[in-house]
Write a structure and sequence with these properties.
Oligomer: single chain
Strand content: 15-25%
Number of domains: 3
Strand order of the largest sheet: 7-8-6-9-10-11
Helix content: 25-40%
CATH architecture of the largest domain: 3-Layer(aba) Sandwich
Number of helices: 14
CATH class of the largest domain: Alpha Beta
Length: 429
């Protein structure tokens, strides 16, 4: 094991490293350490990682990667380097260089995580690697690459950005062979400024890719000089129905003469599913040869159903932008029953928030089965648009419980903390 670590950390000093342990990868969060991880002692916003060394050892870490300045604070196996982040980057870069299979990566304004999660579940009987949780920034990519196993042939890395230049950093490290773009829309505009900049930055994912996959929605925003294959998801669907007894959405699909029935415990993101199927296909997995029922878990916070008593709650609280909001509204209509949409802040939109919400309200007026309640910081503006505004949590809960609608969807950016409000509602039943 020591010789293996010396390959990944060539300029390090090794202290009390056991010869018997097996190096698994890197980790920066003691709550997520896996056996064989090396813990990164990085400076955080409020504390330094060295103060969590003992907890890291207890959770399975074989060593602490620590800089020279703080190494005296770590009592136990440690790898001493001049700069922890640079050493971790070097380790991840070497993992990428030694990986013998193609690398696939996905980005987009909406649908990244759903694509990744669907792929992992479709390929559950195979060896497959996908980005852990939502660790999709540069540090997350370093961690995930360090854990990439040379014997796992199928993979999909999720890449997320919120500012100019970030995608270039990710691509320089990952060097994807297969690039996927799910959607292009208004999101993270505080850092990306405009829709044009969103498209420009996100398509950098394909700089070194020899296979480029996208959707009909994203294609108009992409560089016409590059060759993109559009995955036509609309031709997949044969039928779709909601099973009220089981709180499942059943979608029957046909592709390459094969029929699939997909059961999801939430709203089914068909474009993400189609992209996941296609990327596995181009990586060599015979997914189209299978005739079976697929039971897929919708990622938490991205349209998952929660049945409690007489209520069907829909948890779509992870993020909010015009594309994902439009998708949720479209899916609520398909249930063909009275429903309530609790809308929180759209914090990712910056100065575009007002126009987006105003346009959304114009859409809602055409669908009387969906009652919209706003619970966020732009109360005066939303009142002027005609939204019903809730000023506090108690009034919102009372309004929901007084309604005859038993389908309640929650949608907002994470800063809205609608996930906590949803848990409060569930606990009352």
């Amino acid at each position: 094991m020591l010789n293996n670590l010396k390959i990944y950390f060539p300029d390090a000093i090794f202290h009390q490293i056991s010869e018997d342990e097996i190096f698994h990868g890197l980790c920066h969060d003691t709550r997520c350490i896996q056996k064989g991880d090396v813990f990164l002692a990085l400076k955080g916003q409020y504390d330094h990682g060295v103060h969590f060394a003992h907890q890291a050892y207890n959770n399975g870490s074989i060593a602490i990667l620590v800089d020279i300045k703080h190494q005296h604070l770590v009592n136990g196996p440690k790898i001493i380097v001049p700069d922890v982040l640079k050493a971790a980057y070097t380790c991840a870069s070497m993992r990428r260089k030694n990986y013998p299979f193609n690398i696939a990566a996905v980005t987009g304004t909406a649908g990244k995580t759903s694509t990744k999660e669907y792929l992992a579940q479709i390929a559950s009987n195979e060896k497959v690697f996908t980005t852990y949780a939502n660790w999709n920034n540069l540090l997350g990519l370093i961690i995930n690459l360090s854990r990439l196993n040379d014997h796992v042939p199928y993979n999909l890395f999720e890449l997320g950005i919120s500012a100019e230049g970030e995608m270039q950093e990710l691509v320089d490290l990952l060097k994807p062979d297969i690039a996927l773009i799910t959607t292009i829309g208004h999101g993270h505009l505080e850092g990306l400024k405009s829709l044009e900049h969103v498209a420009f930055e996100k398509q950098k994912i394909a700089q070194q890719a020899y296979i480029r996959l996208t959707t009909q929605q994203a294609l108009p925003f992409l560089d016409k000089s590059e060759s993109w294959k559009v995955v036509d998801h609309e031709s997949f669907v044969l039928s779709s129905q909601f099973d009220q007894t089981r709180s499942l959405l059943k979608t029957t699909l046909q592709s390459n003469q094969m029929i699939f029935t997909v059961e999801t415990n939430g709203f089914f993101h068909l474009p993400s599913f189609a992209l996941a199927m296609e990327v596995l296909h181009v990586q060599g997995m015979p997914v189209y040869e299978r005739d079976r029922v697929l039971r897929l878990d919708v990622p938490i916070g991205r349209g998952r159903f929660i049945k409690k008593g007489d209520y069907l709650y829909i948890d779509d609280t992870y993020n909010a932008n015009p594309l994902s909001l439009k998708s949720l509204f479209f899916n609520l209509q398909k249930l063909e029953a009275p429903s309530i949409l609790v809308l929180g802040d759209l914090a990712e939109l910056g100065s575009y928030t007002e126009d987006s919400l105003k346009n959304f309200f114009q859409v809602t007026k055409s669908y009387p089965l969906i009652k919209c309640l706003y619970y966020g910081p732009h109360q005066a503006m939303m009142k002027s648009f005609g939204f019903e505004v809730m000023t506090n949590e108690n009034d919102l809960i009372k309004t929901i419980e007084a309604s005859t609608s038993k389908i309640v969807a929650f949608k907002g950016s994470r800063v809205s903390r609608l996930d906590q409000l949803l848990q409060t509602m569930i606990a009352r039943i």
